[in-house]
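check this one:
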Amino acid sequence: MIFNKNRTVQFAKVVIVAIIIVHAQAGQALGRVSRSCLAAGAQESISVDWGFKPYLLWTASEHYRNGAWLHTINTVETSPDTNGWQYTWRSYAGHLGTEFWYGQVVGFHWGNSGGLYLFYGNSTATDCNLTQWGGS
């Protein structure tokens, strides 16, 4: 068998690109949205799979008023025994109807696949973002 360095390097590049694409597609399968609604008082960030496929997820939601940080809510509040990691199709961090409209919500969406932490992305809102549901 003859060793061809160029073919080995090309094969390695293809494998690396394939791994990156698979992980990117897993992250893109999840919808990510944040909402800041005056009417309902919703201040929230949500990671969701509309096919109801569960993932190991962790979500955080930062709330701001006039550019000043007020507080952060994350899934640790609802799942303290697992440090906020939830095996679910819908990971929620936020509150409804308990606060006045802040102005901006910033969401942080994380997953864990076999011990590998994956940052799926941020989401932002200054309104209800009703057209963003299911978006990534």
